[in-house]
Design brief:
globular; 25 strands; alpha/beta; 15 helices
Length: 532
């Protein structure tokens, strides 16, 4: 999520989401912290979207609950966004379709949209002309000479902008570590053909639902080899429906069948397009691999193509699914051993070409991990951009530019907001710390009833545990733990400690010390004291 501000006018470029990392236990998704924008609500004039991937539009339903501003994006991007807004119960939003080469005037900004290639159709870069100079935001891009839809990057417009003068270039850094050029998406089509030619049974292709070009190539290849196509997975069905309706997918008549019909056809006449290329636990491919899918069961002779790279952190999930598919007798084709996936992002030579075309005065690498930003900054230095004119920034840092200068100018509130179920931002570090402790060492609940006047224990102490020890095999440990609780209570009363918080603290300390000595574990201890 990028904010560009001039005087009292703000425009926002993209508002995406992130999927939770392993340590974010129970979290469904992560969205940007929008508190800076909420503080400056009256200054926000518009949102500009570069393309329809989740990491660029996934935060929009949360954004539009707070802001009533126009949104500008290409037809497919807004088609995908509309479906998300409908699901989120936001029926009214000002969505405005733009096309490459369109020009908008929003407050002091003149906006131009530039056609670029990516792994989803209708992707654009954005040039923002301001009174102090032009800022170019590439969005996600690759310089694909043979894109599946035939719509190549607008090199002329990029060169024209470079000729007129670019103050700041903000460029995609995701593949900054990779030398050479990123292969064309069409190479995947060739690999599909080779695989289809030798496959005897069903072919199951798992890829990102939003990779419309990949879906198109799978559909073309299935049609060529006289196979029917079934779609499995809710997000895949949504994207195919929207892309087909808007004319971004060309599906021959009679090619698509319902997943319930696949058993009516010989295996060599069936292709299944599915979600789950990242090994997500609830995805269709994972349920197939675990033999838990209601409609599709993997059998010996199936060919499974995983047409995606594991996102960093998902490698274990993906390799587990691959192993499981092999165990079921499937032939599995995955990126590590084939040309079944190409990236949608630019490698080093394309990054150099983008910088050379635009010839910016200042350079800001964006997108990717921090190491990618550093690598991209090195590339810019090699091309002659002065080190003092290159800014590697983190979320929340502010860059201030004039016609003649650029500098870091402080920070604004930024970071991540955790979405858990219907709660947005109500799970923070303390809740996550508790979840981690519960996951690692479990919980012990101590329940007892006290006579407030005499200090006698009327009932208990009873101990309930979850995720700590197996109670039936640890009776001695539990009995001794009860004894420690009783001793701690007696100590409190002997010293005249009658405050609830003091009693609970003593119980917690005594029990925690004892259990750590005996088990070397630190479960969460929750004393519940009732009085009569």
């Amino acid at each position: 999520m990028m904010v560009i501000k001039y005087n009292d006018a703000i425009i926002v470029i993209d508002a995406g989401l992130m999927f939770p990392e392993e340590e974010l236990l129970g979290i469904d998704m992560v969205i940007p912290d929008m508190s800076y924008l909420i503080e400056n609500k009256d200054k926000v004039k518009a949102v500009l979207l570069t393309h329809g991937h989740e990491d660029h539009i996934g935060g929009m339903p949360y954004f539009l609950k707070q802001f009533d501003v126009p949104v500008y994006g290409t037809r497919l991007t807004l088609g995908l966004l509309s479906a998300k807004l409908k699901e989120a119960g936001i029926p009214r939003a000002s969505l405005n379709v733009v096309a490459p080469r369109d020009v908008l005037n929003i407050g002091p900004f003149k906006i131009e949209f530039i056609k670029v290639s990516h792994s989803i159709p209708d992707t654009v870069g954005i040039a923002v002309h301001t009174p102090v100079g032009t800022v170019v935001h590439t969005g996600d891009f690759k310089l694909d000479p043979t894109p599946v839809d035939g719509k190549v990057t607008d090199f002329y417009k990029l060169a024209e902008l470079g000729e007129k003068g670019v103050l700041v270039l903000m460029s995609d850094s995701t593949n900054a570590e990779r030398p050479g050029f990123t292969l064309s998406e069409k190479t995947v089509g060739n690999t599909f053909e080779e695989t289809f030619r030798v496959a005897e049974g069903r072919i199951i292709i798992a890829t990102f639902a939003s990779n419309v070009h990949r879906l198109q190539q799978a559909i073309y290849t299935a049609h060529k080899f006289k196979r029917k196509v079934a779609i499995v997975g809710r997000s895949m069905l949504n994207v195919v429906e929207i892309a087909n309706e808007l004319g971004y997918l060309d599906i021959p008549d009679g090619l698509l069948i319902d997943v319930d019909e696949i058993n009516r056809y010989p295996h060599k006449q069936v292709v299944i397009l599915t979600t789950g290329s990242q090994g997500e636990p609830m995805s269709a491919l994972t349920r197939m691999a675990m033999s838990e899918h209601r409609q599709v069961e993997i059998v010996a002779g199936d060919t499974v193509i995983i047409s995606a790279m594991p996102i960093p952190g998902n490698e274990k999930l993906v390799s587990r699914i691959i192993d499981q598919l092999f165990k079921l007798g499937a032939r599995v084709i995955y990126e590590a051993v084939s040309g079944i996936h190409v990236s949608g992002h630019p490698s080093q030579e394309e990054l150099k070409l983008m910088i050379n075309l635009l010839k910016p005065k200042y350079f800001v690498p964006i997108h990717g991990e921090y190491r990618h930003l550093i690598k991209h900054a090195e590339i810019a230095r090699e091309l002659g951009i002065k080190p003092q004119n290159i800014f590697v920034v983190e979320n929340g840092q502010v860059l201030e530019f004039t016609k003649k200068s650029g500098r870091l100018a402080g920070k604004v509130p930024a970071g991540r907001v955790l979405v858990d179920g219907l709660g947005v931002g109500d799970v923070g570090n303390i809740v996550l710390r508790d979840r981690k402790q519960l996951a690692q060492d479990g919980i012990i609940i101590v329940v007892l009833t006290l006579n407030r006047e005499s200090g006698d224990i009327v009932a208990g102490p009873d101990i309930v545990t979850r995720g700590f020890v197996y109670v039936r095999e640890s009776e001695q440990l539990i009995d001794e733990a009860k004894q420690k609780v009783t001793e701690a209570l007696n100590k409190c009363f002997n010293h005249g400690l009658l405050e609830w918080s003091a009693i609970k603290s003593q119980v917690r300390d005594a029990l925690g010390k004892y259990l750590f000595e005996k088990t070397r574990r630190r479960p969460m201890i929750l004393p519940i004291i009732m009085e009569i």
